[in-house]
Design a protein that fits this description.
Number of helices: 9
Distance between the termini: 46 Å
Radius of gyration: 27 Å
Organism: Ktedonobacter racemifer DSM 44963
Keywords: DNA recombination, DNA-binding, Transposition
Strand order of the largest sheet: 12-11-8-9-10-15
Strand content: 15-25%
Number of domains: 2
GO molecular function, one term: DNA binding
Largest sheet: 6 strands, mixed
CATH class of the largest domain: Alpha Beta
Protein name: Transposase, IS605 OrfB family
Number of strands: 15
Family: In the N-terminal section; belongs to the transposase 2 family. In the C-terminal section; belongs to the transposase 35 family.
Helix content: 40-55%
Bound molecules: zinc ion
CATH architecture of the largest domain: 2-Layer Sandwich
Order of helices and strands: EHHHEEEEEEEEEHHEHHEEEHEH
Shape: globular
């Protein structure tokens, strides 16, 4: 896993020319590869075509990258056609193509990144207040160019206190709840849910309007465009919330020294389950797949191990005495049905706690839970503050919540 930095760099004549030069190398590769297949029946290798095609306006390794891109898509087609008979090989010629710079073509100077385009050509200069990346790819986003820098992943030294495991329960109301044996963190998902609800309403309202217009009319076209624009905005907001929340959870867990994540497997929930049209819609729009993916790659990026844990009965079992409830939990609080135990607590905490136990093979046996079970800390998403201030506010918020939780525990 690599770390990635994206920077928008606008549109200049130099970038256009470079992208076109890359397109030329790519197209030349494509044409001569298929021509050789057709006429001689030989599948050439990347090294042959790299020697064959180069460009006077590109760094040698940048031209090589275009050739390699062609072979990468060729390879993925050969992989895909094993299962998908409709898969098509790369055949399209490209006028523009992405520009890739390898480490050998980079130099840093006074906060600028100098990207060489070969001897005798102007280098490409970018403002770069960060360190030098491993590779840099420049691609067209539809409105401007974007530089995508890749860095080696940074692995933190593993703390000595053994393997710390956090169980993660994905939910609809709380995006994710984690429990690492000491602390519980909750990612609240209500904001995300409100965005999704608004999306459904908006879609219904606009679609009704669109359907009332004549097909092919100007009014209709305008409405369709407006719908797409608004939906795109919402989709971006949802993406941001998911990204920022998951990043926060992972960085918090990393600070606490967690090395293994056991994520509850909720893939089976949606199959053959009918809970009425309203709740069905909720369940089907619950994006746990993308959440799990984001949590997984973000955790792996900082050197954690991620495991998927089967999660049956984790929400029904008492984390203290280990007795399994017969009926599902009603409401937001868990009540143990074992009279001798009678433990009460937050419902989502129970899930995360039991997923962790299950991963360690300890579910269903009594646990001593005292100071262990600290009150959960909510990690909230705050969209309107800058990143640096955000971190500070989050810390203060967490400290305040912890105080508050301790006070309320004492009064119980
Ligand atoms: Zn109990």
């Amino acid at each position: 896993m690599y770390q990635i930095k994206r920077v928008k760099i606008g549109k200049t004549k130099q970038l256009e020319e470079l992208a076109h030069a890359c397109g030329e190398v790519y197209t030349a590769t494509l044409v001569s590869f298929w021509r050789t297949v057709r006429k001689k029946g030989i599948w050439l290798k990347p090294k042959h075509l790299m020697r064959w095609h180069s460009s006077n306006t590109l760094h040698a390794h940048t031209a090589d990258a275009c050739v390699q891109s062609f072979f990468a898509s060729l390879k993925s087609w050969r992989e895909r056609r094993k299962t998908d008979p409709t898969a098509k090989p790369p055949r399209r010629r490209k006028w523009y193509f992405r520009i890739e710079y390898k480490r050998s073509a980079m130099r840093m100077k006074d906060g600028k990144l100098l990207l060489s385009n070969g001897k005798g050509n102007e280098p490409l200069v970018l403002d770069w207040p960060w360190t030098m990346p491993q590779t840099l790819v420049i691609r067209w986003t539809g409105t401007e160019y974007e530089a995508i820098a890749t860095y080696e992943p940074c692995f933190l030294p593993v703390p000595e206190n053994g393997d710390k495991i956090a169980g993660i329960d994905l939910g609809e109301i709380h995006m994710a709840v984690s429990h690492d044996g000491e602390q519980t963190y909750i990612l609240n998902g209500r904001l995300l849910r409100s965005k999704r609800q608004y999306r459904n309403k908006l879609l219904a309202r606009l679609q009704k309007k669109i359907d009332a217009k004549k097909k092919g009319s100007r009014r209709r076209k305008r409405l369709v465009r407006s719908k797409q624009k608004q939906l795109k905005k919402l989709a971006n907001q949802i993406k941001t919330i998911e990204h920022q929340s998951t990043s926060r959870l992972i960085s918090t867990l990393q600070k606490d020294g967690v090395q293994t994540l056991a994520i509850g497997d909720v893939r089976a929930i949606r199959q053959d389950l009918d809970v009425g049209s309203k709740n069905n819609q909720k369940l089907h729009q619950w994006s746990f797949g993308s959440l799990r993916h984001k949590l997984t790659y973000k955790a792996e990026r900082v050197g954690m191990v991620v495991e998927i844990q089967e999660e049956s009965y984790t929400s029904k079992t008492c984390p203290v005495c280990g007795k399994r409830r017969k009926s599902p939990v009603q409401g937001r609080n868990f009540c143990c049905t074992n009279k001798a135990c009678g433990w009460k607590g937050h419902r989502d905490l129970v899930g995360a706690c039991n997923i962790r136990y299950k991963y360690r093979g300890e579910m269903g046996i009594p646990h001593v839970v005292g100071a262990d079970m600290a009150a959960p800390i909510g990690l909230r998403f705050m969209p309107h503050i800058g990143v640096a201030r955000k971190e500070e506010m989050y810390l203060r918020e967490a400290a305040g919540l912890r105080d508050h939780a301790e006070k309320s525990l004492n009064t119980l």
